[in-house]
Design brief:
The complex is a heterodimer of chains A (106) and B (128). With 106 residues, chain A is an all-beta fold. In chain A, 0% of the residues lie in helices and 48% in strands. Chain A is built from no helices and 11 strands. In chain A, the strands form 2 sheets. In chain A, strands 2, 4, 5, 6, 9, 10 and 11 form a 7-stranded mixed sheet that branches. Chain A has a 4-stranded antiparallel sheet with strand order 1-3-8-7, with no helix packed on it. Chain A is globular. Chain B has no helices and 11 strands. Classes of the chains: A mainly beta (106), B mainly beta (128). Chains A and B meet through β5 and β10 of A and β10 of B.
Chain lengths: 106, 128
Amino acid sequence: IVLTQSPGALSLSPGERVTLSCRASQTISSNYLAWYQQKRGQAPRLLIYGVSTRATGVPDRFSGSGSGTDFSLTISRLEPEDFAVYFCQNYGSSPITFGQGTQLEI
Amino acid sequence: QVQLQESGPGLVKPSETLSLTCTVSGDSIRSTSHYWGWIRQPPGKGLEWIASIYHSGTTYYNPSLADRVTLSVDPSENQFSLTLDSVTATDTAVYYCARQTWTFSNIFGVTVEWFDPWGHGTLVTVSS
């Protein structure tokens, strides 16, 4: 399954709301989709799994939604520490695949 | 707190074998709840899943790399390892190890799922 994320990059300001898109080339079974945040020089950090379940310690300003082939990650109110690259991951069919990422810039 | 740490050479010559080890602390590699995976990221690019292994040795590979990749697990050292044969410059990447959840269903069998946590990653450069 090929995951296409859009936009590739966008510039926003703290306090704004943003929705990132992840579109799959085929239906992802059982909502097996996760989201990660990666800051420069760091490993990815799990944010969301099962489309909409926040990982432990993830602030509630992060939310995931979608089904089938269209998924999204919303950050309700951007904090300075949220400016990073975001990846989606399919684990509903093998091989596991990742989107190419969306870079959030201040 | 679960932590993973990758180790191994940072430079490998073309056509040789890349070998990395991941040491796990704060959890047992014999955990029945987790697989252990490898993911790589070429400089400035996206993420590519390589393979995942269970403590019993059951392994799932990305077909794109399966003919060159071998995973192994050493429960006595709480480590798991990756070897990648016949490397080329396109194998230059940051290599991450990570813990992975899994589920089983009668319909789909084993499904390896999301990765959490990840190691810090180690850059491996393939160059002569």
